[in-house]
Amino acid sequence: MSVTNEEYRPLIVAFCCNWCSYAGADLAGNNRLAYPADVKIIRVPCSCRVNPAFILRAFQRGADGVIICGCHPGDCHYTSGNYYTRRRMALLFSMLDYLGIEKERTRVEWVSAAEGAKFAATMNDFCKTVAALGENKRLEDLRCKK
Amino acid sequence: MQKVTRDILVNKAKELLANGTVDRVYGWKKGEFAYDVTPALFKSEKELDEFVFGDFCGANVSKYLVAESKKAGGKILVFLKPCDTYSLNQLTTEHRVDREKIYAVGIPCEGMLTGSALKDKVDSVLSVETEGDTVKVETLYDGVKTFPASDLLPDRCRNCKSKKHVTYDELIGEDGEVLDSGRFDEVEKLEKMTPDERFAFWQGELSRCIRCNACRDVCPACTCEKCVFDNPKSGLENKAAADSFEEKMFHIIRAFHVAGRCTDCGECSRVCPQHIPLHLLNRKFIKDMNTFYGEYQAGEVVGNRPPVVNYTKEDIEPSEAVKRGE
Amino acid sequence: MIDMKEPLMPVVGEVVDIRLDTPDIKTFRVVTPDGKKAFEHRPGQCAMLSIPGVGEAMFSITSSPTNTEYMEFSIKKCGCVTEWLHSMEVGQQITIRGPYGNPFPVDDVFAGKNLLFIAGGVGLAPLRSVINYCRHYRDRYGKIDIVYGSRSKDDLLDYKEIIDEWANDANVHVHLTIDREQEGWDGHVGFVPNYVKELGFDTDKIAVLCGPPVMIKFTLAGLYELGFEKTQIYTTLELRMKCGIGKCGRCNVGSKYVCKDGPVFRFDQLDELPDEY
Amino acid sequence: MRKIAKSALDSLFAAMSESKKVYLPVDGEGGARYQLWTEGTVLSEAVNTVRSAKDFFFPQTENLVEFKMEGKKLDVIDVRRETEDFVIFGVRACDVRSFDILDRVFLGAPVDTYYKNRREHGVIVSLACNKPAETCFCQTFGIDASAPAGDIVCHMTDDTLFLDAKTEKGEKLLATLEGVTEPCADSAADEQKALIRSRLDKLPLKGLTADKFGGDKTKEFFNDPAWASLSESCLGCGTCTFVCPTCQCYDIKDFKTADGVRRFRCWDSCMYSEFTKMSAGQPRLTQKERFRQRFMHKLVYYPANNEGIFGCVGCGRCLAKCPIQMNIVKVMKKLGEGGDKND
């Protein structure tokens, strides 16, 4: 990794489900587990609340990577929300890849309320991956750049 | 090319009007040239004098039934090509049409020419005649040109997915079979490219978009009362794309919104004034759904649940889904 | 005719006073940041107000051109922009551009004539400008009658000004009415069109109408019954507008653009236009 | 008049490009489009471009003004920059006329300064149509495709391009091209003009007339029963409006950028259902009214405000591009019941 890349700090938007992943993030905080401050968490009632348009909107507004975190399959607070998330995101990510948009910029992770460590590790890893890709150019809106 | 003639259809329409089965007919009206027939509603036997049928009647009239079947009056007669019947079934599934108000007559289809696909190959078309699989085009400056039909047919017909009518009240001619088409070949070709190549390809295609909304307005799956792209409160509203991002946004979201409901009728690509192969977006979703969740054809059966609103506990993880190409 | 160097370029306007007139109408006083009037206008003309990021909309200028200090806009809450305007506080800066449209012919056709103003609801807003203009130059006009009605007493716009100022002017006759009986109201009760007929005006005057379409329709019929000619009756129209200068193409009725050729029309002129407003 | 060998066109464009940007129709996926000339760009032979040339003066989106906001305070920032001179080469007669039609709208008082700025910087080099298409009906509106207007008017034969300056702007540009062109007789292109005229005479829409229409015909056509059947299959998309060289309706919208608000205008279409929608109501309730508006505007309202000049130039783009093949020719025939092919 070049020096400039190390200085570059990507903006990450993390959609976290209220019941598991948001609590996981909380736990990571309580346990003083470090993850980059470049991760901006948006709390959603369930991971399936995340409309594909939200993800594109995040990229438009300057995100370099978007991650969706939900309860583990089978553990959804609403029984089946994350199963739908899984299908939608599989299709959406595959489509973004088809359009030539770097597939490493999008990710889905299942993080439970007890997995503070996993949350921090996931975010660290995701930030590193996105940082290596550099700025989001393929889904950028020039009007939203300073 | 077409095996069924105008007279057969007009006689059928007259018969059904006369015996009171239907009180209006959705069909096609002649235009100025060989290729510019317009979908039109016929309300009486006399009006049927203007009814035409031929190799340019490719417009999928299913979408008109959304509004038409809500109107008062009797049944509407429509002549549906095999691919149109999938749209009608899908609209019935989504309760967008009142199927009881529709009298569908299935007609065989040998592939439909389109004005735009024709004019890609030939300038200044004066007249078009088809004999079997040969198309003779009389031009203003280059005399008469002859083509095999397959050269002029749009992708959706060259890669016809089915000659089978999945719904009808009456059938003219023999019913066909679901075909093993090469409709995903183009998608596979794109998948095999590098991400950079794919990005360049789609950037080139989508940047031509003028946001006329023809693809959306013709699409039988796009039946929202108010589209998110027209709704100022949706946060997605835009008209003319002011940034290249908006073209991508529009087409990705539109394709996603019809995913699982798109029957692959190909109308979006037919109507695009900029020749953007929009069906390749829809086919990607169809192909992915087939691969990830098992074969599924929207509109095949009334009441089927599209894969996007369904799940199994063993579904593929998104991370696995995008890895397949590697 | 409007002649502007930069017709689409707005200037900053500061809201220096907000008055709650009725439960859903507020009147905003707007000046430039240095405390001056943004531009001069004629009675009946409009201006485009906007809140960047929310939207722009056309409003009639409610204050009279004779007011040299500020402009006022009476705005009913009914859409996205107006809702935002209603939630504003004093000191908020907005953008303003104009003036747009043709004014009432106050200096030629109206001069020396008796005038009858008929308004319903927020329809008083565009008329207030011309009424106050005529009151200011009182000696130039004959008798002035004002018929104004609203749903209830609380829905009467500029009630205080009407009672304290207009009604006390010499030779100005104010006739107020509300739709339904209400406690504390001893004035007339009933719809505007009927009230106009009851009052039975002479036809020696020019009538100016503004209000909801239903009111216009029936009042017009009433005026014809009283013997008024179309050439004696004026109104102002409202359609969706974006540019304000007759170019964006959405406010036309036939070949006339409301923003440029209107908003003030005489009824015989409207007769020439297709029925699409 | 001056001329240059067709084989030397590159040197002509190169010479033009020295002082100005040169745009010309270039073949691409699905048809010809205007593109900036660079070494190796080849002029299209297509009779017309998919999108019209109006983009140069009235682009699909255009920034008007920006705002910066802080608390209750607001700043208005004019972000316009001076446009550079440019040349549009190969504009067809119909599109050249469309500039007149747009001029009457945008340059009429009060002047649209954004349009004016672009318009003043553009030099129009028109090119007569060697092979007018079956969808062409510019003759209906008195346009002669063999002799277009423009700052410089060109005729192309099999081997030569003739250039004739018609305005001061054109003469100035042509003077800079003396190194690559050579003088010729003013009558040099006459043979080509005659050939084009003979071709125009044979077009299928040759006999179409607009005599029935005009500024005083609102009453006659507004309530024509034919509107219902003509519009019944209209999808309400904006294809016809967006490919039309004379459609000029626009919307003004705000976009929240990273550090403020940008107000821009973009093409809009009277065919769209929300075009005239207000919070208080909708004067054009169904597609019939919207459809009627578009054609009444071209054939009646525009002439009413512009000394009888029609708002259509007969370029035929809507004939080629409408998804349901409904178009102004069908409307004119059905409403006017005239314009027989044989008259």
Please give a quick description of this structure.
Chain B has 326 residues and is of the alpha/beta class.
Looking at the structure, the CATH topology of chain A is Rossmann fold
Helix content of chain C: 10-25%
The total tally of domains of chain C equals 2
Sum up the overall morphology of chain A in one term. Answer: globular
Please state the second-level CATH architecture of chain A. 3-Layer(aba) Sandwich
Give the rounded overall mean pLDDT of chain A.
Answer: 92
Termini separation of chain A:
26 Å
* Cα shape of chain C: globular
Number of helices of chain A: 5
Give the total of beta strands of chain C: 15
- Unreliable stretches of chain A: none
Largest interface: C-D, 49 and 54 residues
Helix percent of chain A reads 40-55%
Structural class by helix and strand composition of chain A: alpha/beta
Largest sheet of chain C: 7 strands, mixed
Helix and strand run of chain C: EEEEEHEEHEHEEHEHEEEEH
- CATH level 1 name of the largest domain in chain C: Alpha Beta
How would you describe this protein?
The complex is a heterotetramer of chains A (146), B (326), C (277) and D (343). Chain A is of the alpha/beta class. Chain A has helices spanning 3-7, 21-30, 52-60, 81-98, 116-133; strands at residues 12-17, 39-44, 65-70, 106-110. Chain A has 5 helices and 4 strands. In chain A, α2 (21-30) crosses α5. The longest helix of chain A is centred in the middle third of the chain and has 18 residues, at 81-98. Chain B is of the alpha/beta class. Chain B has 2 domains: 1-113 and 159-181, no CATH class; 182-326, no CATH class. In chain B, 35% of the residues lie in helices and 13% in strands. Chain B has helices at residues 6-18, 62-68, 82-93, 115-121, 149-152, 155-158, 185-192, 195-206, 214-218, 244-258, 267-271, 279-293, 318-323; strands spanning 22-29, 38-42, 75-80, 102-106, 125-131, 134-139, 144-148, 170-171. In chain C, β7 (114-120), α2 and β8 form a beta-alpha-beta unit. The mean pLDDT of chain C is 88. Chain C has 277 residues and is α/β, with parallel strands linked by helices. Chain D is of the alpha+beta class. Helix content of chain D is 30%, strand content 21%. In chain D, the strands form 2 sheets. An 8-stranded mixed sheet of chain D has the order 3-2-6-7-8-9-1-10. In chain D, strands 5-4-12-11 form a 4-stranded antiparallel sheet, with no helix packed on it. In chain D, a hairpin with a 4-residue loop joins β11 (250-256) and β12. The longest helix of chain D is centred in the last third of the chain and has 19 residues, at 287-305. Chains in contact: A-B, A-D, B-D, C-D. At the C-D interface, β6 and β13 of C face β4, β5, α6, β11 and β12 of D.
